[in-house]
Specification:
By secondary structure, this protein is of the alpha+beta class. It is about 25% helix and about 35% strand. The protein has nine helices and 21 strands. Bound molecules: adenosine-5'-triphosphate. The site of adenosine-5'-triphosphate has 13 residues, from strand 1, strand 2 and helix 1.
């Protein structure tokens, strides 16, 4: 098992339109035995970063270490890694036993009896023991996925890299496999790098989330921290089930004034805003943190419902107020459906509000 470290890692591809910088000077560490998810929008460089860590791409510049060993120029087969990709590439004419055993092909000195023992042990852990003599075509998608994990894990790699391994599974199976993967990580606490663009997967699976945008790491934090303490507006917008409300405001005299309401800010925050905000500020309020109150005098502002969405156990209401150009989103219990044009009096706690510099988008704390 190994800690993975990238230092000022850059990968530029030459394309007919010029140079494409897929990974742009990344510094990061994935701790020994931890489950790190590389998350971000399509094209931000997740797969390239994973392929660099695996040795499947050569960096344009920068270094990669496994523990203190420099592996930047090492071939994948010399790094003791395993990888699982989006498409489960099991050999269709091999049995599951043979497929898993293939994972031991490059592990030198095991007798065939020892190999078989390892395969059986792995299959028991993954609950595919009964399926060992079947061919991949006779298995369900989830069972095939487990067999692929078995083949990758049986050789006991130092680093296990997974690139969107669940994106071909249907939603229900994905959720089931998520729990499986979590269990597997407890049983095999090998350092894992897991690429996904699905934030729910990232939030539920990982010890750490590495959020990328445009070839750079914008935040590396635990799932709780990245949700509760986003570094900037991009992180706040990307993480969270419902799109965050962003409202521009102007700080003055210990208050932030927006076109819809004014709020008092505590002394310390007012000082940070005074020293860090270049122009105005942007307030970020998650829909779940907006409260509906009965009495307008307890509210900061009042909005009119435009439409709503059923979220299962709640409704997500989209509403507007003449003073704000953007829609305001908040949730209400799934009891009575709102009527057309229904008005809501809204408030929120300052503790639940993120304050960003309007120009740079960086968080002010
Ligand atoms: P997705 O979620 O859509 O898979 P990603 O975040 O994994 O995207 P990458 O596949 O790493 O992103 O690609 C990052 C950027 O590098 C993209 O603009 C992509 O077009 C470009 N890129 C990736 N591989 C190559 C290549 N072999 N040659 C040229 N450009 C490439």
């Amino acid at each position: 098992m190994a800690l993975v470290k990238c230092e000022n890692l850059t990968k530029a591809f030459s394309t007919p339109n010029g140079e494409e910088i897929a990974v742009d000077g990344i510094d990061l560490t994935i701790d020994d035995n931890s489950f790190a998810t590389i998350l971000g929008p399509s094209g931000c460089g997740k797969t390239t970063l994973l392929r660099l860590i695996a040795g499947l791409e050569t960096p344009t510049s920068g270094e990669i270490y496994y523990d203190s060993v420099r592996v930047t120029d090492k071939r994948p087969q010399d790094r003791n890694i395993s990888m699982v990709f989006q498409q489960v590439a099991l050999f269709p004419f091999y049995t599951i036993r043979e497929n898993i055993q293939y994972g031991l092909k490059y592990v030198s000195d095991l007798s065939s009896a020892e190999q078989n023992e390892k395969v059986e042990e792995m299959a028991k852990i993954l609950d595919i023991h009964e399926l060992l003599d079947k061919k991949p075509g006779q298995l369900s998608g989830g069972q095939r996925q487990r067999a692929a994990l078995g083949r990758a894990l049986v050789r006991e790699p130092d680093v296990f890299l997974l690139d969107e391994p669940m994106s071909d599974l249907d939603e229900k199976l994905k959720v089931a496999m998520r729990s499986e993967l979590k269990k597997i990580h407890q049983q095999f606490p090998i350092t894992k790098g897991y690429v996904t663009h699905d934030q729910e997967e990232a939030l539920t699976l990982s010890d750490e989330i590495i959020l990328m945008n445009d070839g750079k790491v914008v935040q590396q934090s635990s799932p709780g921290e990245i949700y509760q303490e986003p570094n900037n507006v991009f992180v706040a917008q990307f993480i969270g089930n419902h799109e965050i409300n962003l409202i521009d405001g102007t700080p003055e005299n210990g208050q932030i004034s927006t076109p819809a309401f004014d709020i008092d800010v505590p002394e310390q925050l007012a000082q940070s805003i005074a020293s860090e905000a270049t122009d105005g500020v942007t307030l970020g309020i998650r829909p779940l943190d907006v409260q509906v109150v009965d009495d307008p005098s307890d509210a900061l502002f009042t909005v009119t419902m435009q439409f709503f969405e059923h979220m299962g156990d709640s409704l997500l209401v989209h509403a507007e107020t003449p003073s704000l150009s953007d829609i305001v989103r908040f949730t209400i219990p799934e009891v009575a459906e709102p009527m057309d044009g229904e008005q809501y009096h809204l408030t929120f706690e300052l503790d639940d509000v993120f304050v960003f510099d309007q120009q740079s988008g960086e968080a002010i704390t």
